[in-house]
Amino acid sequence: SIHKNKSINPLQYLYEFLDAYDFASEGVEEVQEDNRTLINASILGKIFEKINGYKDGSIYTPGFITMYMCRQAIRRAVVQKFKDAYGWNINEFGDIRNYIADRKSKADLLEFNALINSLRLCDPAVGSGHFLVSGLNELVLIKYELGILCDGEGQRITDYDLTIENDELIVTYSNGDIFEYQIINGKPKSKEDQRLQKSLFHEKQTIIENCLFGVDINPNSVKICRLRLWIELLKNAYYSEESGYTELETLPNIDINIKCGNSLISRFAIDADLSTALKSIKYDIKAYRALVQDYKNCKDREAKRGIEEIINAIKNDFRSEIGKKDKDVLKLNALSGELFNLVNQQAMFETEKDQNAKKEKIHKLETEINALSAKIEEIKNNAIYRDAFEWRFEFPEVLDDNGNFVGFDVVVGNPPYIRQEEVKEMSINFETNYKTYSGKSDIYVFFYEKGINILNNNGTLNFITSGKYFEASYGKPLVKFIINECEINSIINFNDLPVFEGVTAYPLIFSANKIKKDDFSFPYYNLTELPKRSLQEKLESTQPLITTKSIFIQNDFKFVDDAIASIIKNTKLNSISLQEFRGLPIV
Fold it and tell me: Kindly report the CA angle at 47 between 43 and 49, in degrees rounded to 5?
């Protein structure tokens, strides 16, 4: 206890009790009495998970896993960005440093920063935002390691070291002391400290506003996620020169990138045509994108509300115009036109037989129209569409200037673990709209398909999920979908190692790029085969411990080593099945 022999005011006791906890730590530590950093944002994820009680399938992902996954996925995506932009022959992150080593001008630094800032990362089941926080830290570290981290004037940040430890971005002076922003006698401790703090604040702001996107069906998750990102900004809050170092810089409106909705349910397809909608409204995609940016930087409450109303009006116009081109709506319009012409048709020499045929046709059309109208109305009022999320136009940052959906560079996350039986009302939608549907799977299967579909070409998917889909029959459609759409980068199998606290799961980390390829071989890591050490050490030591494996799919599928894979492949090429053999004529 804090006070064993003293009486104390209850409110004061509560404050001292909370202050005794190390909110900068994820683990179980002793009571802290020294100075601590601001609350570790990941602790909010743990708190939310305990309050939520796993009821929506959300499970807290340990920091060392989100850190590892974001590092692998984002660095791969950054390499792709530089390859696409400059045509460089590079495959590893370290190759970038070699190419930019001699390019240190202000123009070069700003150009490279802009390229990395164009990266788009999305967590479609964002939960409390752990992956986005890890992604934020990783992007800052990448700029530092490339030597392009700079201030708003394009001047490089030097004389400081940046690292990520325990999923936290750590800044130290060159002598090893932890950097701490301080105002002493009404002024910053030094001009360089002020420049660094201000640069890190705006660097994080830029990344949050431009690079990080999240969706979750739980509104509480969305609020926690936004709070975590604001906390990350607060860690580098600075006192502005304009206020004489008496007022902190105003926080931006970063909430618009984290949206509430059901990632798996949409009324409109990603490739639905926006051209008609763009012609019918006064805003094009550039203007829509600019309005979203204005919202983020708006400091006046009334002006912010006005911008929000315009943004919502644009999205409603999109919904309306795309809805008009729905195949059922078009068919209904055609039938209604046919009925109108038939009813108003006047014939001079109409026989009784003609009249009966006409009545019969009118009755048939009315029946079809009523059935189709009922279907359209049911879709409009269906409860499963109440939280529908329209990837087609919710994020203008991943649309080109013509309104085509380009997609994200990285999709990363830990999709919810929920059996289909628990969301029966969505089964028809899953069966109709997902190639990976099998009738029995957990819904994380559909997140794989959705995640791959919202990637751009060569985009990277990194998920941690149950690995059962590689063993159970319900996983066949998913594995087929993956090998048709992706090149697998690696699979890291935890098997029965304890990854999630208090939850029994057999997870794996799956990494792939959205690119069609016929070679199904990939690095496969079985962490249970590694020597006894911490789970984090096992994960981080996977690089030299590769076993190359392949997937074979016919009536079944399984992992096989390359040597066995070659035998299986040759056997299949030079033989026929028993079923075919039975059908051959006897000679």
Answer: 115
